[in-house]
Prior knowledge:
Layout: H1 3-20, H2 23-29, E1 37-39, E2 46-47, H3 49-61, E3 69-78, E4 81-90, E5 93-104, E6 107-117
Parallel strand pairs: 1-6
Antiparallel strand pairs: 1-2, 3-4, 4-5, 5-6
Helix pairs in contact: 1-2
Protein name: SnoaL-like domain-containing protein
Domain SnoaL-like: 8-116
InterPro entries: NTF2-like_dom_sf, SnoaL-like
Amino acid sequence: MTDAEAVLSQNLEFYRAIGARDLAALERLWAQDAAVSCIHPGWPVIHGRVLVLQSWRAILTGPQAPRIRCSAEEAAMHGATALVTCEETLDGGSLAACNLFVLEHGVWRLAHHQATPIMARQQSGRSRPRSSIH
């Protein structure tokens, strides 16, 4: 298995754990040595493993725990770090997400998760906004 495949496998495990409300699996997925952070949509930045895991516990044990489906995953490898971008589909809409993984003791672990609402789609779905100079 390549590093990119291993990272994408861990990314899928992250979304599987969320869907199953498996807090023990989520705890195993997050980095233990590296600094971790998380930005849930509409929330301020959360720093530190304990606080990040507390935030997931609050979300997943609440009465309105989200059902998140992940698609369009792409991994960009940067040595011992990897960035996975993807789209999260929830009952209320779609989010663009990025998950930063770090290699710890031979295992890819999450160091950062961030998701933001997708307000409008561009025609091609992949084109970037063009800047203009006036």
